[in-house]
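Before the break, one more example. Copy the sequence into your notebook; we will annotate it together after we see the structure.
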Amino acid sequence: AQNLRFLQFGEGIVIKLTSNGGYTHFILCTFLRIDEKLTSPNIFYNNNIGIQVAEFLFLPNYAIGIAAASYVSRFLGANRSDIARAITYRILLGITYMGVLGIPLWFFGESIARWFSADNAVVYQAGLMFKVIALFQIFNGINIILRSALSEAGDTLIPTLFLIACAAGIMFPAAILLSQLIEPGLVGAWIGAFIYLVALSVMIIYRYQSNRWIVIFSLAQK
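Here is what the structure looks like once it is written out:
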């Protein structure tokens, strides 16, 4: 239950979407559907290592996202949309935080993996996976913060449609294809998830800059 996030469309309509834990289920299911060689215990173990580390690093960004959402709600309620829109530094804070934590993942991924396993094959694949996660988490930070801010303003429908479209149109096809083209396949699947997150970040940033969320909040107050 803790891996689920609930997004509300207007009043009374709730759609349940997986949060970070969803990447786990997605990637594991992808492996099962693609090739028998991807169902080895090492694949599952490596992926779980990546998920555990990534979820630990994501936690402060949720706090930043909550702060940004509170900031937006407070100043929109005070009819100060100009101040409410000024959450850029919180986004930069999240990006900086995730970028700094990505440095040890990129350069010392194999050493980190040895905390979880002494198997050289597991350590090697996890080291490659951590390089992808080092980049992945920067864009995930952008999504966490901006989607939290938009949600607090009542703008949830379009961002969620963006998420669904990117997941179905980009993440699944890219992860399946790249897991076949890149060795090890686990890294290819994570690269596919990374491409999805970059595309989603671009869409969410565009939505934020459009100011539609300010209009939505204003209409909801009438």
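Residues 1-21 have pLDDT under 50 and may be disordered. The longest helix spans residues 41-77. Try to locate both features in your own notes.
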